[in-house]
């Protein structure tokens, strides 16, 4: 058995969001969600087993990882060791090209890369569904980054076996997603805590769960039709509904900032002026704009002009998580 493996994974952005858990321990969501995997901001992670080590070591971008991240990685490795029947501690070297913890899906790419690399390093032979379930235990959204292009994550029946992501078949749509980084600082409230608070206290939460099921059904039809306008409209309303339910939490969770609102205004204006462009937002102030690839440079220029100094990146559909240098040992 090779004791070392490297994997790469990309972030994904949900077009129908995951917001709220049915099971905090197993990370089973309340709702199904659907995402697009990006071709930018990959995470590359190497797991090297070291049975002589007395603890796991976690390195992020060449320096010791923050304690909370190191603990999370170590807990994840405990799951892998449980499945593998042991295998000892590991040295985990992870390189993230996206700002960590800023609502840019770094946990999705990070935990997907870790799941794929750790499964191999500990000798587990898992198919993609099993890898998706494993990645889910690290971070819910990571279950979707196992797959490229468009993936749907099933809430399932509440069991560990029933909740996994899989590709959305038959989608030919190839949109661009323009990512406007309004603020790349680490967010004040983690998405994990924000979800918990929303489920426990928001009077709007049940309504969002119901509307989300309708959004998912309509999204699948719109994707199958290749209808970018419908996909964008559903994605935008689903994201704003998610933010509405968290704004109603007690105390409120507010990721939307003045800078985000200025860009949401600008996207609405773009549409009025005839460019099909639709916004989505996650657990942070950054705004992502879905559009036709032919319009992406123009949309990026408009967003840059609206918020001078911000970083704007253009993404397209990207690949699923995979091993690299499979022969490394
Ligand atoms: C999503 N987000 O569907 C949603 C939309 C943010 C907003 O999944 O607690 O890091 O590790 O399962 O996956 C971010 O939450 O949370 C997220 P955990 P995760 O992409």
TrEMBL record:
Family indicated by similarity: Belongs to the diphosphomevalonate decarboxylase family.
Domain Mvd1 C-terminal: 178-308
Entries under InterPro entries matching the protein: GHMP_kinase_C_sf, Mev_decarb, Mev_diP_decarb, MVD-like_N, Mvd1_C, Ribosomal_Su5_D2-typ_SF, Ribsml_uS5_D2-typ_fold_subgr
Protein name: diphosphomevalonate decarboxylase
Domain Diphosphomevalonate decarboxylase-like N-terminal intervals: 9-165
EC number(s) on file: 4.1.1.33
Annotated organism of origin: Mycolicibacter acidiphilus
Cell division listed as a keyword: no
Recorded superkingdom: Bacteria
Keyword hit for Lyase: yes
Pfam families on file: MDD_C (PF18376), MVD-like_N (PF22700)
Keyword list, A-Z: ATP-binding, Lipid biosynthesis, Lipid metabolism, Lyase, Nucleotide-binding
NCBIfam families: mevDPdecarb (TIGR01240)
Gene Ontology MF terms in the entry: diphosphomevalonate decarboxylase activity
């Amino acid at each position: 058995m090779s004791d070392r493996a490297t994997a790469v994974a990309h972030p994904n952005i949900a077009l129908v969001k995951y917001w709220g858990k049915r099971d905090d321990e197993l990370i089973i969501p309340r709702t199904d969600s659907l995402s697009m995997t990006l071709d930018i901001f990959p995470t590359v992670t190497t797991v090297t087993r070291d049975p002589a080590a007395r603890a796991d070591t976690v390195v992020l971008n060449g320096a010791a990882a923050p304690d909370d991240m190191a603990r999370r990685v170590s807990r994840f490795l405990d799951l892998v060791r449980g499945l593998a029947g042991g295998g000892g501690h590991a040295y985990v070297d992870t390189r993230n090209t996206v700002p960590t913890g800023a609502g840019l899906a770094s946990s999705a790419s990070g935990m997907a890369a870790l799941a794929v690399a750790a499964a191999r390093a500990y000798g587990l032979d898992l198919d993609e569904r099993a890898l998706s379930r494993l990645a889910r235990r690290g971070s819910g959204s990571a279950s979707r980054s196992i797959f490229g292009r468009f993936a749907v994550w099933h809430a399932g029946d509440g069991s560990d076996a029933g909740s996994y992501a899989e590709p959305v078949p038959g989608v030919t749509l190839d949109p661009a997603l323009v990512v406007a980084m309004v603020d790349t600082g680490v967010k004040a409230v983690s998405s994990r805590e924000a979800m918990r608070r929303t489920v426990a206290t928001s009077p709007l939460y049940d309504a969002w769960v119901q509307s989300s099921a309708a959004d998912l059904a309509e999204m699948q039809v719109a994707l199958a039709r290749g209808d970018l306008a419908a996909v964008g409209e559903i994605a935008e309303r689903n994201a704003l509904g998610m933010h509405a339910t968290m704004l109603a939490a007690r105390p409120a969770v507010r990721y939307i900032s003045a800078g985000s609102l200025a860009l949401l205004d600008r996207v609405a204006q773009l549409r009025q002026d005839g460019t099909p462009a639709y916004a989505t937002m996650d657990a942070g102030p950054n705004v992502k704009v879905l559009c036709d690839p032919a319009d992406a440079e123009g949309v990026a220029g408009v967003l840059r002009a609206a918020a001078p100094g911000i970083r704007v990146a253009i993404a397209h559909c990207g690949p699923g998580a995979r091993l690299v240098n499979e022969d490394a040992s």
